[in-house]
Amino acid sequence: MAYDDLREWLAALERAGELKRIKTEVDPVLEIAEITDRVSKSRDRQGNYGGPALLFERAKGSEMPVLINQFGSERRMRLALEVDSLDQVAERIRAFMDVKSPQGFIDKVKMLPMLAEMGKFFPKTVSTGPCKQNIRHDGVDLLQLPILQCWPKDAGRFITLPCVITRDPNSGKRNVGMYRMQVYDSGTTGMHWQRQKVAAEHYRERLRRGAGNQNRDPGVAVDVMARTSGGSRIPSGNLPSGKMDVAVAIGTDPALTFSAIVPAPPDIEEYLIAGFLRQRPIELVKCETVDLEVPASAEIVLEGYVNLDELRMEGPFGDHTGFYSLEDLYPVFHVTCVTHRNNPIYATTIVGKPPQEDAYMGKAVERIFLPLMKLTIPELVDINLPIEGVFHNLMIVSIRKSYPGQARKVMNAIWSLGQAMFTKCIMVVDEDVDVQNLGEVVLKVLNNIDPERDIQFTLGPVDSLDHASRLPDFGSKMGIDATRKWSTEGFTRPWPDEIAMDEKTRTLVDNKWKLLARELGIK
Ligand SMILES: Cc1cc2nc3c(=O)[nH]c(=O)nc-3n(C[C@H](O)[C@H](O)[C@H](O)COP(=O)(O)O)c2cc1C
Ligand SMILES: [Mn+2]
């Protein structure tokens, strides 16, 4: 049964022994982060990372308890999506995709909402819900929330697990994305939607329209995000004025929180994805002051707007790359109204050096997206985005190779897929390599390449968090073709066999192994 809200999810975590309540008073400034980081990096008996979810019941300076690390282990990620294995989610998606077969991946995804069965999962708007138990138009004070400062050099406190809701001015569709929010004062925050993300496109689309209406050069407005890259240039003030509605839900059921990080095509509402994941529709209520709908059972809802012509320095912020992301200009969110449940729970996370909570969310995305990637890249066998590769730095893929140059075709296909375009290094191996076994990958990849011949460079968009690229958001990427080279690819030397003992000798030793193992003291 789907979790209706954060509280049902908390109860489930507690029943599963996955939640620890902490009664000692702790400071949301740095202290909670240090505790959580230690818990994330502690290991269980099997040596796996990821301690329990934590509910800090006494956060200094606030009435509200703080929930953190709710997704911080593979087991909890499975509990959150109510499956025994993440492959089950992938399997459900695959079953859906097989219903009809339109041409491309995008066509298939686009038809998803049209499928009759999908109807069951569409969000429902209801007249009211628990998030309306308290409605505050005046005296809004974000400083009453137990918002964390995570790392010493962070620019301040950041809301780190917000579901940010915006509307596409063309299609009317809503997007839910997770974009951190730096608290500037009691009623304003930063809005860190990076340029390639869906809400940033909603914002630019409004700029385009505003520029059109006011007879200004649309190019100026459209390019504003790019012109301000790197934080070195302040916009010339030539931006069209106007407001864009934004709502933020904090503390939602786990399927919705997770869907806010899923790199879904812009045409598919995360509300529908969450409904699909939990197999029950999300219930929505209308906002009080803006034209948006929010999850009815959210713990806290912030309603407000960003001004089209206002950008402010955001960051630095200790990020999931293990480095601080540098300051840069981003829009400013102004709160107009706060609604919340009685005794609200503040849900948050920290990012920093891996492994942390986001690693398990990312791994779930990897598993769920594999069958979708296979639709456009059918030769794909498996993928691994190692946690220390911080998701956009390294993707290892195994393929069933059938023609010359295929590894390079696969790299280009990956660089053309949604957020996978950011991947800085793609390693392509043959299907016999287990990409989940990093030791095997290192052995095979480095043995099998002639670097100058097998490394392919390309230029394109890179992640905003990449601090090494030549320009913010734009840089080079590398693909390594570590497949066995064929003569049809110009490799005419003999390729050696891999070493393996013959069957006869193995059987011989197998039969003596009990005795030998005892003598050798090996199990
Ligand atoms: C904890 C966490 C924090 C994140 N913070 C940001 C952020 O500040 N800005 C951003 O653009 N993406 C951030 N992301 C990644 C986005 O949520 C992700 O790219 C998502 O797919 C964006 O949704 P969209 O495709 O609807 O734009 C974060 C992800 C996680 C898990
Ligand atoms: Mn989206």
Summarize the structure in words:
It is a single chain. The strands form five sheets. Strands 5, 6, 7, 8, 9, 10, 11, 14 and 17 form a nine-stranded antiparallel β-sheet that branches. The protein has a five-stranded mixed β-sheet with strand order 19-20-21-23-22, with helices on both faces. The longest helix is centred in the last third of the chain and has 20 residues, at 357-376. Strand 20 (394-399), helix 12 (406-415) and strand 21 (425-430) form a beta-alpha-beta unit. The protein has 15 helices and 23 strands. With 523 residues, the protein is an alpha+beta fold. It is 28% helix and 22% strand. The model is unreliable at 226-234 (pLDDT under 50). Helix 4 (86-97) runs parallel beside helix 11. It binds flavin mononucleotide and manganese (II) ion. Flavin mononucleotide binds at residues 160, 175, 177-180, 192-194, 197-199, 261-263, 349, 351, 358, 361, 419.
Give the helix/strand layout.
Blueprint: H1 6-15, E1 19-22, H2 31-40, E2 53-56, E3 66-68, H3 74-80, H4 86-97, H5 105-111, E4 124-125, E5 134-136, E6 158-159, E7 163-167, E8 174-177, E9 181-185, E10 188-190, H6 198-213, H7 218-222, H8 224-227, E11 243-250, H9 254-259, H10 270-278, E12 283-286, E13 293-295, E14 300-314, E15 317-318, E16 324-325, E17 328-340, E18 346-347, H11 357-376, E19 380-384, E20 394-399, H12 406-415, E21 425-430, H13 438-448, H14 451-454, E22 455-461, E23 474-481, H15 503-520
Parallel strand pairs: 1-2, 3-18, 4-12, 20-21, 21-23
Antiparallel strand pairs: 2-3, 5-17, 6-9, 7-8, 7-11, 9-10, 10-17, 11-14, 12-13, 14-17, 15-16, 19-20, 22-23
Helix pairs in contact: 4-11
